[in-house]
Amino acid sequence: MDFTSPEFWLAVGQIIMIDILLGGDNAVVIALACRKLPPAQRKLGIMWGTAGAVLLRVILIMFALTLLKVPFLKVVGAVLLLWIGIKLLMPEDEDEHANIASSDKLWGAVKTVIVADLVMSVDNVIAIAGAAEGAGGDHQLPLVVFGLLVSIPIIVWGSQIVLGLMTRFPFIVTLGAMLLGWIAGTMLVTDPGVLPYMPLDPASTEARPEVTDLVRYGAGVIGALLVLAVGKIIAARQKPVDFPIQ
């Protein structure tokens, strides 16, 4: 890994931002799953549950990085990321975690954390794989692992601070949603099935064709603005309207 590369730190920053925004639910799941454990076992439940969930996520991202090389799969991933970004801007569902069961046995709680994280990880995996694939060069998997390891303490121990900041400063969530739109746009134009129809960088090779920076960054900007516009429109329509009493 080239720690001096701006692209490396850009990708790490994107992965941490994505994991905080989309992984914020992990802290809630962990708390709910471990709430019936004896106090002495809660730390173990949190530690082993988090470790298992992260390991599972790394394995899923390994498959995702491979699958993103299949023609037109990035297009599907880009559309999914656009929807995830739009969902971030919608009002939250307060009953979203109502079906998370707790256990008074350590390994039962750990299993609950891992299974729940697996179900909830699809959006996180695709977003992180897209960020690493777009800026990670030839070190995508180490980059993913590094980004996840950096974000673990932020999610587990700093989740309340992060959630408090998001509540106080809603623009953080908006920026995160736009980041997903940016990644979706750059993913779409670099799909192997779409590349032949895109303006290619003259410096790229036939074995590894790349679009021009103008196309890539332009697609990223369009994706970010699309998420912002559609998300705000849908959120505004979902707000209850108070009619004055005649």
UniProtKB/TrEMBL annotation:
List the Pfam families hit by this protein, alphabetically: TerC (PF03741)
Keywords assigned by UniProt, alphabetized = Membrane, Transmembrane, Transmembrane helix
Q: Does the keyword Ribosomal protein feature in the UniProt annotation?
A: no
**GO CC field:** membrane
User: Where in or outside the cell?
Assistant: Membrane
The protein's matches in InterPro entries, at most eight in alphabetical order, are given as: Integral_membrane_TerC, Integral_membrane_YjbE
Membrane topology field: Multi-pass membrane protein
Task: Identify the domain of life.
Answer: Bacteria
Q: Which family does it belong to?
A: Belongs to the TerC family.
The identity of this protein, by name, is: Membrane protein TerC
Q: What is the organism field in this record? A: Methyloversatilis universalis (strain ATCC BAA-1314 / DSM 25237 / JCM 13912 / CCUG 52030 / FAM5)
